[in-house]
Amino acid sequence: MHIDFANLIHSIGDAVVISDAKGIIIYWNHASERIFGFSEKEALGSTMDLIVPDRLRQRHNDGYEHSMQTGTTQYGDKLLTVPALHKSGRPLSIAFTVSMIFDDNHKAVAVAAVIRDDTERFNEQRALKKRIAELEAQLQ
Q1: DSSP H/E element including 25
Q2: Residue 118: is its pLDDT beyond 90?
Q3: Would you give the distance in Å from CA 116 to the centre of its chain?
Q4: Residue 138: in which H helix or E strand, if any?
Q5: Which tens digit of pLDDT belongs to each residue from 36-91?
Q6: pTM of the entire structure?
Q7: Pairing mode, strands 15-20 and 25-28
Q8: Residues 6+ apart with CB under 8 A from 95
Q9: Is 35 exposed, middle or buried, given 0-12, 13-18 or 19+ CB atoms closer than 10 A?
Q10: Residue 75 near residue 100, CB atoms below 8 Å
């Protein structure tokens, strides 16, 4: 049995975004378009600043550059949840994992991220915490 991995990644329900060593987006699947609102044409050749909120860009870019220089990331096996931006400017909460991509000489050349829109769960969790705080305040 032959599996067409390019087709699989392009059609998978989670966003798959790959950016090169300079942080330029080189792959953007259909789910990325659905989650973030940017077409593949708009995203390819752009930086991740496209979806990273202004207040987090410097931190993101510094961490990305460090990972490219060292070939390591502290997030390799962790599910990260961070704010992001939709094309409309609407805030998102995304959950994702990252993987470093290396060339034959084990030099870091790209990063792949598999991303899920976690906004609904995040908002439900925030509302639940608020309600719990309100109920606890009533008990005091």
Answers
A1: strand 25-28
A2: no
A3: 8
A4: helix 119-139
A5: 999 999 999 999 999 999 999 999 999 999 999 998 887 777 888 899 999 999 99
A6: 0.84
A7: antiparallel
A8: 79, 80, 81, 115, 116, 118
A9: buried
A10: no
Judge whether 24 and 46 are in contact, CB under 8 Å: yes
Per-residue tokens: 68: 């490219």
Return the closest-CA partner of residue 20 out of 68, 57, 82, 84. Answer: 68
Question: Please, which residues have CB within 8 angstroms of residue 73's CB and are 6 or more apart in sequence?
Answer: 67, 98, 100, 111
- Residue bearing tokens 């995203």: 43
Residue holding tokens 């906004």? Answer: 119
Q: Which residue has the higher pLDDT, 123 or 92?
A: 92
Amino acid at 50: L
